[in-house]
Structure formats: structure tokens, C-alpha cells
Specification:
Elements lengths: L20 H4 L25 H32 L5 H8 L7 H29 L3 H5 L2 E5 L8 H17 L5 H15 L6 H6 L1 E5 L14
Antiparallel strand pairs: 1-2
């Protein structure tokens, strides 16, 4: 008759970083040690794919483009109706004239200024007030504070927009704008937490909603 072996101990529970899931919320950033600084153990499960971020950006560009087109059209209609602009000015510009008149050049610069303002207001307000742009909401993404997981302040949202967009807008009349946006995209891909130049400057990161990350007492996902 063989002697019984030593009692088997139950397996140790897995180690969990940070507070329980019920306290984090579905939009929270990765809170493991070093997360948000690029020196931690690596990205968490809420890191979005690069394709999702590109798709969200395209949606936002389309929405801003529609608003910009309507704003410019209304502005030109007002100038025409009030007699401040001759309708032939736009007609000659639409025929592909290589030499712009002073009025045509001023109108072009003003249209770009409207685009600049609309884009900035759109992004800063969405990140600070809603925590995500409409494009990000559609793709289940969220722009959060890299340290706390909360929404960005207006100041941080403005810094994120300025660093990510302003240099490119300054190079709008040349191919440099494509080079700048390519550099931003490369910085996102190469960073282990998918944080680009603008995220590092603003202390932000883009997180995706992890299904089942948080539940209420009744078991319903928040």
C-alpha cells in the first residue's frame, strides 16, 4: 500500500496590475507600471490597431471637409449677394487660370484659414469634451490621458492638435505636408504604446474599448 503524497496546493491567482476592472471603466488607459511612458512592460489590451486609427481619421476628415465646404459656400454667397465680390471672379478661377488675381488669392487664403479653424475647434472640443471625435467613436476609440485614463484638458487637447497638425498646415503649399504626416504615422507605428509625437507632447494616448472590461453588479456591460 503506497503512502499518500503531499497535499496539492491550489494554483496561485494571476497577478493583476492596477485597480479591479470594475474601477477602471471601459475607456481607461493602460495603468501598468511604466505604461504611458514607453518604458513599461508593453502595450495593454486596449491598444488600437493602426488601421482603426487611420479609418477614424478619414471619417473625421470627411466630416470636417463637409463643414468646410458649407462654410466657404455660404461665405461666398454672402459676398456675391452683397456685391462685395464679382461672380466672374470665381468663374475665372474655376476655368483653371494659372495667374490668380489679388482677390482670388485672398479668397483662397481665407478658405484655408476657415479650414484651419474648423479643424482645430473640431478636434480640441471633441477630445476635451467628449473624449473622442465622431470618427473615433465610430471605431470604438478614445483619446485619453496616458497617466490617468481620463479625458484630456482643453490645454492638452490643443497641444496634441498643434503638434500633430500645425507643422503640416504650415507646409500646405508643398509636398512637405505629406512628409510631416508620414513622420507622425511612423512615430505611432514605432512606439510600443502607439504614441506619436503629438501624444508624447500632450501626455495622451489613444485607447480602444475592451469588450467586457467593466461590468455592473447586474452583469451588464457599461
Amino acid at each position: 500500500m503506497t503512502e499518500p503524497g503531499p497535499p496539492q496546493l491550489p494554483p496561485a491567482p494571476p497577478v493583476r496590475w492596477g485597480p479591479p476592472d470594475g474601477d477602471r471603466g471601459p475607456w481607461s488607459a493602460d495603468r501598468r507600471p511604466g505604461a504611458g511612458s514607453g518604458t513599461g512592460p508593453g502595450p495593454g489590451p486596449d491598444r488600437p490597431s493602426f488601421r482603426a486609427r487611420v479609418a477614424a481619421t478619414i471619417v473625421d476628415l470627411v466630416l470636417v471637409g463637409i463643414a468646410w465646404f458649407v462654410a466657404v459656400w455660404l461665405f461666398l454667397e454672402v459676398l456675391t449677394l452683397t456685391g462685395a465680390m464679382d461672380p466672374s471672379t470665381l468663374e475665372s478661377a474655376s476655368l483653371g487660370s494659372t495667374a490668380l488675381t489679388d482677390q482670388q488669392y485672398a479668397l483662397a487664403m481665407f478658405a484655408l484659414a476657415i479650414l484651419f479653424v474648423l479643424r482645430g475647434l473640431y478636434l480640441v472640443y471633441a477630445w476635451s469634451a467628449a473624449g473622442a471625435t465622431p470618427g473615433q467613436q465610430l471605431l470604438r476609440l478614445r483619446t485619453v490621458d496616458a497617466r490617468t485614463g481620463n479625458r484630456l484638458s482643453v490645454a492638452r487637447a490643443a497641444v496634441r492638435w498643434i503638434v500633430g497638425e500645425l507643422p503640416g498646415l504650415g507646409l500646405l503649399l508643398g509636398p512637405g505636408i505629406l512628409a510631416w504626416y508620414a513622420a507622425v504615422a511612423l512615430s505611432i507605428v514605432r512606439n510600443r504604446e502607439a504614441r506619436g509625437f503629438h501624444d508624447l507632447a500632450a501626455g495622451s494616448r489613444v485607447a480602444r474599448r475592451v469588450v467586457g472590461a467593466a461590468t455592473t453588479q447586474g452583469g451588464t456591460q457599461r
